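Hello,

Following up on my earlier ticket. Below are the two sequence lines again, exactly as submitted.
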Amino acid sequence: MLKKLTTAAAVLSMGIAASAQAGTLDDVKERGMLSCGVSTGLAGFSQKDEKGNWSGMDVDVCKAVAAAVLGDANKVQYKPLTAKERFTALQSGEVDMLSRNTTWTLTRDASLGLNFAGVNYYDGQGFMVSKNLGVKSALELDGAAVCIHAGTTTELNLADYFRANGMKYTAITFDTSDQTRAGFESGRCDVLTSDQSQLYAIRIGLKNPSNAVVLPEVISKEPLGPVVRQGDDAWFNVVKWSLTAMIEAEYLGLDSSNADKMVKTGSPEQQRLLGVEGDSGEKLGIGQKWAYNIVKQVGSYGESFERNVGKGSPLQISRGQNAQWNKGGLMYSNPIR
Amino acid sequence: MTKTTTGAMGTQARVFEPSPAQPAPVTSTGAYAWLRENLFSGWLNSLVTIGVVALLMTLLPPLFNWLFFDANLSGSTQADCTGDGACWVFIKVWLQPLLYGSYPTESLWRVNLSLVLLFGTLASPFWLPKHLRNKVDIAMLLALPFIAIIILDGRLLGLDYVATDYWGGFALNLFLAAASIILGMPLGFLWALGRRSQMPMARSICVILIEFFRGTPVLALFFMGSVMLPLFFPEGTNVDKLLRVWIVLTLFMAGYMAEVYRGGFAAIPQGQYEAADALGLSFWQTTLLVILPQVIKVSMPNILATAVMLFKNTTFLMIIGIFEVLSTAQNALTNSNWLGGFSTEAYLFVAVVYWVCCFSMSSVAAHIERKLDTSHRS
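Thanks for your patience. The regenerated structure is below:
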């Protein structure tokens, strides 16, 4: 009896080991579907429309990886995850990757068994004030009443910032972002603070959006990016370079509309990205046209930005820190060659 | 009044004629009396009445204006909501996701069919012939969750496969609540029996199960099911999130039902057991034929209250990222095309849908209780 049990246990553990050893890249190829963890709803980043279609900046990263690996940006199974579940879902293998406005911090990178595969949006905490206050800079906010979403790191950042600059403030906390907005709108506070990408979303919800301005100061660093499991370097590379390809495509002036043309007439760099020359795909273990598929089906980083949160969206967020490095931003792609 | 008539003798005889009854004083009948008695019976009550009326007068017109007269119903985008009233366009556009999640439109008939089956089965005691009820009903009920899963999933029937990621909306709340109530009730009965058992092993296991699932908040159970449980599975094995939640809800329901039944058991007089023993019935015969029906009758109000509670608990699914009706509403509110602040409309819609369902459940419950009320009380 005991012998039988040990044999069964051995077989079971072998089965486990076998399934753990198969890389995520092979799993995804075999399944023909990418399982991607996204947010349950965040304007411009991952949102589901009334038809059930997902869109957003974070969703585009999922699509890019699916386009690179499977050749079809639509072969993604979206797994909506709350903030608390996200890392477990990744660790337990429920999702292949996480693209869910996750801030890259040392603690997360070093202690959760995860790897951040890059940054697809540089966010940071900012301030929104009503226009008739006439405030031009956050440094003029001494003594202000600040509307804030309770229990978030935003609260701590705010305290740090005001103390560092020797200013006083009164915090008025709310439980949900809806209430925070209502508080700001009814004039209970002079200032509303939140992550910049959220400030724009809140601003649209105001009865009269043009009455509110977002101040230029950014008081915290929130680099958001896709995350994969640690210890699966082949997959890590694929996700990292899929994101890089989007940024590189914008730098090289490629987008979904001119990709086909540039395959024939583009510069050597453009052609190398599009897979006409070089063997980048082979090195990553995916098809030679991986980057072409990304650019053609999802678009460059700039396209994705403008479509989801920029000029082509109601959010109207300016590029700011998220512009290309040669245009004053932080988006810098390592060479694809 | 009397009438004077001239008689044969020339004398005048006076014939009695009753005067018609006076109408009751205005102070004791009709609307006036009702008002006086109920609303203005003293100076304090009068004051309260006037205050309440004044409050309603100031509150109701703006409310109705917002709800109906100024509301926007035509159109399909945020820009169509121009008036000051409610933006029902928002609800109209998002109605399908709110009710069905992102289940493919061409396959919606499968959800509807499952709903019809669900309500048909629940109503079956009312339409099945009497002699079939006991046998068919229970089998139908217990098979229902699995039949619904097969229809919704579609693979076994050769229909298009719809993964659980696409299930959602209010239909999901209904299905999950129904499926866990249906399976939780018999399971809870077994646990309650185990708790009364003389066998120490069975008893302690049942007590531990009951106390664990009753003593843990359902929110914590959901988190365990969705966040902790996957870590114990070998990498690569995925038990569907919805399935995990269903199991958690069923066990939660069973824990509560076990305690409800325990109250029922306590109310059964010892004489019932003794009478059954005297008739030579076996343990299971005694339990199923004599005790169980009485236990259910006694605990009916509690059973129904627990069922309604579980139904409302399904909104907690929101916090683990399942698109039931409430999280669908929140998702809709964060859509960048609908950022205009429609939270009042969204939450009002969810509240009304829930209220309608819970109220109907309560009415049916009251009806069942009246029907079952064949008590020993004289």
